[in-house]
């Protein structure tokens, strides 16, 4: 948390079963069919029953994630207490929240921009006299939020950013949600955009919820570096062990060896990158091979200067001491 970086802890190969492939194909065909047929008639289908929101059947994807979470908790919970699981908008739904809460953790994720939310307070309207008493209040208009929910406003040039926090109910969830709504308004054109974040922890502060979700993007940097520099997408293996070895090696290079090698150079230049590191060691290799061909080895002062100058070739961010020389 202090470093605001992500570290790979576990890599598990997943092979989709024949049943999973068939189910995916069936869902795709159903979506195509639903677009081709006429619009379904309004009203509730005859013979349908109320569904118990507490009874959730997890799909294979969520079961795999839950298994990984349980393995991780078993490995680190004794030394590193964990409280939150941060997932992207694909998992901003009730089954995902249900799965995470089964592991005694809380979910932080993103809801759809058109999610139907109502304040988590009892219905204040009049009861019509028939049917169940209303549970949900008036739907929240995220573009016109009540100022009592406003937590922070910042101005960045022509952009105003308003952050609201409110405890909300949603018909898809069996429990209330801690919702943070970020509304961005262009002061010049009046155009607006918004993002809806949520957590199952009702006590989580607004600033922390936003920060934790932003930090999720650090995971993308891991994959970017592993693919760009350490061959994650270059290997052609298909067997389980042969796949796990290069994947683990690529992520080890991201936050293991390369991170340790970069640390002393970033003390002089925080922008020093993996490309600079690779250029430096490549230059050292060229100098070393060239020195072997000389009949007489240069003195140490000259040799160090040669190493420094050659190491700059191909580098993007120079070290301060190199720039002076």
What is the element layout, followed by pairings?
Layout: H1 18-36, H2 60-76, E1 84-86, H3 94-102, E2 106-111, E3 118-119, E4 150-156, E5 159-169, E6 177-186, E7 192-199, H4 206-215, H5 218-229, H6 240-266, H7 274-292, H8 300-312, H9 320-324
Helix pairs in contact: 2-3, 5-6, 7-8
Principal-axes shape call = elongated
Q: What structural class should be given to the helix and strand makeup?
A: alpha+beta
| Radius of gyration (Å) | 27 Å
Tally the beta strands: 7
Mean pLDDT: 83
Instruction: Please count the helical segments.
Output: 9
Stretches where pLDDT is under 50 for at least 5 consecutive residues are none
Biggest sheet descriptor: 7 strands, mixed
Distance between the termini: 38 Å
Fraction in beta strands: 5-15%
Fraction of residues in helix: 40-55%
Instruction: Write down the secondary-structure element order.
Output: HHEHEEEEEEHHHHHH
What does this entry look like structurally?
- The two termini are 38 Å apart.
- The protein has helices at residues 18-36, 60-76, 94-102, 206-215, 218-229, 240-266, 274-292, 300-312, 320-324; strands at residues 84-86, 106-111, 118-119, 150-156, 159-169, 177-186, 192-199.
- It contains 9 helices and 7 strands; from the N terminus they run ααβαββββββαααααα.
- The protein has a domain at 223-324.
- A hairpin with a 2-residue loop joins strand 4 (150-156) and strand 5 (159-169).
- The model has no long low-confidence stretch (mean pLDDT 83).
- Strands 1, 2, 3, 4, 5, 6 and 7 form a 7-stranded mixed sheet that branches.
- The relative contact order is 0.08.
- Helices cover 40% and strands 14% of the residues.
- Helix 2 (60-76) runs parallel beside helix 3.
- The chain is of the alpha+beta class and 325 residues long.
């Amino acid at each position: 948390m202090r470093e605001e970086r992500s570290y790979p802890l576990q890599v598990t190969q997943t092979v989709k079963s024949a049943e999973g492939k068939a189910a995916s194909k069936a869902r795709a065909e159903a979506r195509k069919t639903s677009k081709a047929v006429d619009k379904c008639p309004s009203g509730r289908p005859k013979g349908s029953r109320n569904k118990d929101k507490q009874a959730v059947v997890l799909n294979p994807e969520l079961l795999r994630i839950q298994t990984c979470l349980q393995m991780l908790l078993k490995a680190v919970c004794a030394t590193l207490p964990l409280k939150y699981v941060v997932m992207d908008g694909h998992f901003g739904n009730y089954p995902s929240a249900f799965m995470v809460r089964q592991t005694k953790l809380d979910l932080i994720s993103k809801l759809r921009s058109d999610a139907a939310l109502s304040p988590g307070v009892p219905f204040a309207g009049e009861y019509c006299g028939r049917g169940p008493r209303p549970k949900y209040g008036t739907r929240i208009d995220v573009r016109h939020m009540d100022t009592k929910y406003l937590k922070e406003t910042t101005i960045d040039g022509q952009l105003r950013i308003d952050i609201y926090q409110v405890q909300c109910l949603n018909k898809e969830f069996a429990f209330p949600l801690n919702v943070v709504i970020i509304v961005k308004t262009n002061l010049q054109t009046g155009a607006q955009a918004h993002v809806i974040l949520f957590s199952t922890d009702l006590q989580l502060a607004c600033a922390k919820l936003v920060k934790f979700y932003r930090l999720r993007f650090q995971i993308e940097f891991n994959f970017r570096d592993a693919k760009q520099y350490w061959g994650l997408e270059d290997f052609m293996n298909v067997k389980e062990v042969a796949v796990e070895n290069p994947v683990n090696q690529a992520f080890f290079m991201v936050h293991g060896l390369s991170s340790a090698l970069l640390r002393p150079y970033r003390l002089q230049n925080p922008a020093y990158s993996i490309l600079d590191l690779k250029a430096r060691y490549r230059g050292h290799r060229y100098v070393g091979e060239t020195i072997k061909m000389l009949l007489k080895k240069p003195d140490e002062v000259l040799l160090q200067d040669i190493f420094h100058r050659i190491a700059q070739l191909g580098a993007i961010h120079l070290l301060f001491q190199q720039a002076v020389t």
